[in-house]
Amino acid sequence: MTDAQQLFDYARKQFDSIADDVERHFEQVAGQLREWMPTDSPFAHTPPPPKRLPPPTALQAAQRWISRNRALTAATVAFLVTGSIGAFVFVKAREGKRKRRAKRSVSGARMDVVVIAGAVASPLTSALYLDLERRGFVVYVVANTREDEHYVRSQSRVDLLPLRMDLTDPFAAQEQMARFKNLLEREHIAFDGADPHRLNFTGFILVPDAQASPTTIDDISSEEWADALNAKVLNTIATTQLFLPTVREHKAKVLLLTPSVTPALKPPGHAIESTVYGALEGFTSTLSAELKPQGVSVSHFKLGNIDIPAVTARQRREGVPKPLLKATPLRQLHDSVFDALVAKRPSRTWHVGRGSLAYEIIGGWVPSSVIGWMMGAGRKSKIVDDVKDEDLQGSQASLTWEKVEQDA
Fold this sequence. Notes:
Elements: H1 3-36, H2 58-68, H3 70-97, E1 112-118, H4 123-134, E2 138-143, H5 146-153, E3 160-164, H6 170-185, E4 200-207, H7 222-250, E5 253-259, H8 261-265, H9 271-291, E6 298-303, E7 306-307, H10 309-317, E8 328-329, H11 330-342, E9 349-352, H12 356-365, H13 368-375, H14 380-386, H15 389-395, H16 399-407
Parallel strand pairs: 1-2, 1-4, 2-3, 4-5, 5-6, 6-9, 7-8
Helix pairs in contact: 7-9, 10-15
């Protein structure tokens, strides 16, 4: 074998080796491609990139932080709860101590006028207009009779004045209203050299005598129904109609105060009281809807068990046992009335007195059979005999429920 033949053989072996290596490499690459691409597709494609998770939201981040710092979170929540309760108690205590006084003119004279219409000699009404006079208001009390006018003047208060309004004589009532409007429109001088000022009609307060002696419907005659509706409902509506033009002109607040415990429960023997309350509530709702577009607010005060000192002292002398639960102090009602008079947007409904809100919820949601059982069905005659009309006027219809609690 020649040298050329050996060189040729060696070159052929090297070429075969290189060809085998290239073939094995391509087979390996082809195998990987077959694994990546589906069997039914003739084209090869690369696998999709892995999906990235979206960034966590603020809520998820907060939850993760809370789970990692549970001890710190519990301490923070406890601090916020105790701090909120403490702040609420502090604000309430401060509001109770805050002095509520009516505004005065530059010369120091009184300038805010309040008109009260209702049962003039009622302990609640008397306490209300006397308190408003002490707080710096010029208080006019609507007197339908000469006896009411004499009763108001007997209080001997300079800024507590009767406003004679005879509803049986429309012309005389209109004349009296014209005098009242002239009083508001003209200027007043407190003393020589003082700057003149005008009176501001702040509020018109209705305190109708919505109470009635407990009796069954069978014993109520048509004359008694007519007298009750005329005195308690129609007089209130007629008085409101007389003052409406002045109320609109001065944007005065309108307040209606009615007892709510007995009408909310609707016990037997209180048909007149429930009917009067329903009529006054419907009238107030319609009046509020009509006056709201004109910028006049109407507030309904639903009264519960309120401790009136004059009534409590009389009951103590008569030997009436104390109620099981303490009544709400009268000052809370006075403060609420003042806040409603001076607020820019007072609430539509105010619940003042123990049981006002609770019994309204009970009367609206609890079945009547359960309420009758709670009040002692079968002992209604005892309730009717024990409760006096004077006690109802003083406690604002809460003694009926107190009698039930005592008997239980």
